[in-house]
Amino acid sequence: MTGIELLQTALYGTDDPRRLHSFVETLPWFWVLVLPAIGGLIVGILLTRFTPDARVRGPAEVIEASAMKEGRVERRAGLASIAASLITLSSGGSSGREGPVVHMTGMIAGWVSNRLNADGVTGRDLLGCAVAAGVAASFNAPLAGALFAMEVVLRHFSVHAFAPIAIAAASGSVISRTSFGDVTEFALRETNTLGFYAELPAFVLLGLVSGLVAVTLMRSVFLAEDAATAMQARLSLPPVLRPAVSGLLLGALALGFPHIIGVGYETTSAALSGDLVLHEAVVFAVLKVIAVSITMGGRMGGGIFSPALMVGALTGLAFGSIATGVFPEMSGSETLYALAGMGAVAAGVLGAPISTTLIVFELTGDWQTGLAVMVAVSISTSLSSRLVDRSFFLTQLERRGIHLAAGPQAYLLAMFKVSSVMKSPDHPKAPSEDRVRRAVNEALFVAPGDTLEKAMPLFERSNGDFLAVVRLGDGADGPEVLGVLLHVDALRVFNRALAATAAEEHS
Q1: Stretch(es) of the chain classified as CATH 1.10.3080.10
Q2: Strand, helix or coil at 388?
Q3: Strand pairing partners for 81?
Q4: Distance (Å, rounded) from C-alpha 126 to C-alpha 113?
Q5: Cβ(472)–Cβ(495) under 8 Å?
Q6: Which of 87, 155, 194, 6 is closest to 501 using CA atoms?
């Protein structure tokens, strides 16, 4: 947080980074245009130099590490991603700071786990503690920090992990309050109250609208990612220039609409305070979705949570302006809709209704409107989770072939290589050489580097009790038989992994 503010102040010259877009309006046009492009160029240099795929790491990689890597997050690419996100957010990239925070804390936890030679359970617990402390410190939200770590990163609520994660979240919040004071992220001007219980159906409708907006935001980012990749290939654009081009597009958009610059706290606060009219809320929400898609599709760095808060607050304000105008006699404040919309869109993006509901309360200090927020959040999450793979992060992983959204039964098979389960051809339980050769001729074989995720469908198709394990070569003799994979051995390994996962989740 401090690093972003210091660098942002140095680049833009503002003495209050939380009012960045108002200050940007006073800057020369060429500086507004060029600065994000320069930041993007530096990001491109960092990522192409220190990552194998020129891609920023974020919460998705932390979730993957929790599920499949015993809580270990890669360090080299992680450090480059943190630096890239710092530069992106400081130079005007339209994203959020929670993604880098989650990845940075996860990377620290992985380093500690390696130093302690921790097992998988302990590694995941340390990962949850680190993420909880980071989120709590970043947003001054200890309750949400603890639940975010369990709901989003660990993806289960185990009793044995709750105490250390809660203590870590409290510690992170204490450090934050000692450094920045005991203040909420957004200050509301008025107390939001529900007009009457008859108003609750409006929040059900707001939840549906927010769920669709959340899906639109997520799919826009993925569409921008695919379009940018296709355009990069068509133009033979070096990976180092991709973030720079995205930064230039952001700068051009910011010339007319500086509200899209940076995290967007000023615009979010204006929405929660009711300082925007209907058409402004709609236009700013649409432009923010476009800006976030350009930033993340261009691989500039940063997270999606803060942009989701801004888009949600604008969506809720627009909805509230219409609702209170049509039914003024039974409506509360339109800012209540902004607050509920902020939580509903963010919850749909994160796939985390519990922690998002709490973080909205802790960010605003408004605990009196829980009924409206809970209704909107629950409806939004129920809808959006059916239109994507549970959440933005899990959909990211699904697009890379990592199937965490379906649960342990889907991803555990990918954790075991055939080489760790196979038996040698001369093992007493191995089938005869003739049977193995017939299996090879029928294409019922796998390579030692394959995983059980590839092997199990072959067992299903053949209805056999083994697969040949071969090394493919160019020789005239065909594939070289290295061993066999018995169906019973594959099932035994899979069942043990499922049992261990269930035991951890219910401990």
Answers
A1: 2-180, 197-238+255-399
A2: coil
A3: none
A4: 7
A5: no
A6: 155
Counting Cα atoms < 13 Å in the Cβ hemisphere of 180 gives 15
For residue 222, give Cα distances in angstroms to 60, 227, 293, 392.
Answer: 14, 9, 8, 9
**Please, what CATH class does the domain formed by 408-505 belong to?**
alpha beta
What is the Cα–Cα distance from 317 to 139, expressed in whole angstroms? 22
Q: What pTM was estimated for this model as a whole?
A: 0.90
Averaged confidence pLDDT in the chain: 89
Top pLDDT among 164 and 29 is at 164
Query: Percent of the chain beyond pLDDT 90?
Result: 62
CA–CA dist 59, 107 (Å, integer):
11
Residue range(s) of every CATH 3.90.1280.20 domain in the chain: 408-505
User: Mean pLDDT lowest for which of 128-142, 270-284, 361-375, 489-503?
Assistant: 361-375
The DSSP string of 296-312 is HHTT---BSHHHHHHHH
Residue carrying structure tokens 């007319």: 256
**Span 221-236, average pLDDT:** 95
Residue-wise DSSP of 146-161: HHHIIIIII-S--HHH
Amino acid at 46: L
Q: How far apart are CA 102 and CA 357, in angstroms?
A: 19
Give the full edge-to-edge strand order of the sheet including 480-486. Answer: 445-446, 466-471, 480-486
CATH architecture of residue range(s) 197-238+255-399: Orthogonal Bundle (1.10)
What integer pLDDT is reported at residue 92 of this predicted model?
A: 87
CA angle at 42 for the pair 38 and 48, rounded to the nearest 5°? 140
Q: Report the distance separating Cα 441 and Cα 405, nearest Å.
A: 36
The pLDDT, as a whole number, for residue 506 is: 82
**CATH code of the region 2-180:** 1.10.3080.10
Half-sphere exposure at residue 51, Cβ-oriented, CA atoms within 13 angstroms? 24
Residue 124: name the closest of 71, 45, 77, 75 by CA.
Answer: 71
Return the pLDDT at 17.
Answer: 63
Whole-Å CA distances, 241 to 36, 238, 254, 351, 366: 13, 6, 20, 33, 44
Extract the tokens encoding 480: 């070289």
**475 pLDDT above the threshold of 60:** no
